[in-house]
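Notebook, p. 212. Picked up where the previous page left off. The plan for this session was modest: take the two constructs that came back from the sequencing core last week, fold each one, and keep the raw output in the notebook itself so nobody has to go hunting through shared drives later. Recording the first one now, exactly as returned: residue sequence, then the structure token string.
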Amino acid sequence: MKKVSFFTNTIIFFLLLGLNSCTKKTLDVIRIGVLQGPTVISFAHLMDNPPLIEGKRIEFVMKSDPQQIQAMMLKNELEFAVLPTVMAANLYNKNINYSMVACPVWGTLYIVSNTINTQNIGDLMGEKISVFGQGATPDVLLQRFLEQKNIDNVQIDYSFTNNNDLAMALLNARVKIAVISEPIVSLLQSKSTDIHVIAKLNLQEYFDNSDKDIFTQTAFVVRNEFSRDYPTTMHEICEAYSTSCNLVNEQPKKTAKLLVERQIVTNESIALASLPFCNIRYVSSFAIEQEIKKYLEIFYEFNPATIGGKMPDRNFIYQPQ
């Protein structure tokens, strides 16, 4: 009986060892969820020459809507993702197992018009402004902006289901004023000389007379299980992405060329013109915890539900080992 028991235990041991080995081998692809727009631009150089990290290749999953990225995160189908910081906080407060690693794209939202009757902020009084996503980042920031500038009697229109439809409506004069992000703003201006920027949706009023920018608009997040199990890979991914963001600004002509090659933008001159307004700058979240907190407080004060009913605790911010 002892021999049988020993033999049985030996088989079980090697079976478990084999199962563990198989589990580790299953992750040979690192999936990163990427939103169209400035986020894609921030990854341009990494996409051009994606490194093989610890035997794992990088796969970029591009989506046009943050909700699509969110759906994949809910299913644990992504190791990393970039999405609005507000949405990242909301998911964290709903116990979705991701943490914020960095802010790669800062403020890129602009109030844009196609009519000569609206040239400055004061002209917005009594007008209708179209925004994609009621309660989303553009909507909340627009309302706070109008409040800070004492602009009354503005009707906010939420009838468009995505940013591309809204941009086309502005181009075809079906709407007069809209909140649009780069690089779409530059693309629209290349197609019509009537389209002009009235104002950038900045947060100057919240800077507390300091030089710190709190417009932490986007969050680069990591699945916590991945960062725990693959700390070296995690570090190398962050380094590679940070380098890609830096190269966007250091090598604008090459960046523009890459964007055209990947059909992200149709024209190099348009891409080149849009880059300074995309505000791409990779900053680790642990270094800007207070700025992230101040940014999220704007949404919490507007409507706590936008970030999941409460301010996220400190574990929302990824702390490097």
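Okay, moving on. Second construct, recorded in the same format:
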Amino acid sequence: MKLFGSSGIRGTFGEKITTQLANEVGLAVGTVYDSVVIGWDTRTTSELISKALAAGLMSAGARVGIAGMTSTPTLANETKNFAAGLMITASHNPAPDNGIKFWNPDGSSFGSQQMEELEDILANKKFAHVSWDKVGRCFEIVDAVEKHMQSIESKMGKLSGKVVIDCGNGATTNISPYLLRRMGCEVITINSHPDGTFPGRGSEPTTENTRLLAECVKSSGAMLGIAHDGDGDRTLAVDEKGRFLNGDLLLPILAKLEGKTSIVVPLNVSMGVDTYLKGVDVIRCKVGDVYVAEKMKEVGADFGGEESGTWIFPENSFCPDGVFAAAKLVQIAMERPLSEYLDELPKFDIMRKRIDFGTRDKVEVMKEIRPLMEAWSPLDISDMDGLYAKFQDGWILMRPSGTEPKLKIVIEGENEARANELMAMAMAAVEKVLG
């Protein structure tokens, strides 16, 4: 049994994600943790799943707080008052999907050992059902959003300037625009009404999906555009010229400003980070914010981030907080235009592909790919997360997705020609193994 991916449990509602599963997850979590807070994003199935989760938790005797529709970082912030937090969301996945993310009081995702413990309880049905007189109680939390806003205000102070925010019809609709206005910004909103079908642009901020945001930034004369994903743990940006800053571009900027001695990034982050940062130790880990947070705590890093748009500021929380990141980006743009940072970044070529595994076993596929990688004579091959081949002028990463049955291929070359060459090598290996 393997339920957990790199971001909790996630899948299509009615298939992998069911109310029965949610009830059993609640029982498993309640078996270990005596107080739990639940929140959910705008997806149409989220509130339904919350009822099943709460029933399971109470059946195990846990005290249950209901934070309602709220962003993931808001839920993580509220978890400091509980033994654990459960966020019902599929993050940036399409509307039919849903899932559950698991949070600790310090804002970090459940670590590997915690996930393995829950997997064991679920697989072997080792639930702690309690008697009628020990059933847990459920209560509503009405101020989770307000407390999250106050926490950010206390760390950031006042802001100013015109900002455009695209909430993607997701869970930040009830916090980011209100927070930035309260902190002093003039705010224009796009897709700022909650809608779990994500009619505005889909739940994931991409170059294509943020074209309206870019146009609005340019036409309004705003200094910055901010784009959230469905649950608010990711934040990407558009500069004042209307250029989209994906995670590969935004990460080195944030890392340079936040990294004093060390930062943590996954294997799939551009080598441009190493080039751009001087005197800062760049530590790499497995892909996934849970692994970034684990490594940050282990080494005491100043900052952590992923190319997906999740940013961890330890002075705030070990949860990727897209709302805090939005305020941080405004603060940065107040001091210096984002376009100036963008123009000085080193230029490397990154390419990504996703290949369906079909019916093949992921472990066997990776075993067959490794000798093909070795034939390329790379400087090094790491199996920290999938297979990572390092060359003098680039790298190839092939890893199974933690949330879907696909092989993720990421390559980077020092120029376009080398990037194309590396991708051709990777695809030839995949075609030989998968056909």
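Notes on construct two before I forget. The mean pLDDT is 94.
Flagging for discussion at group meeting.
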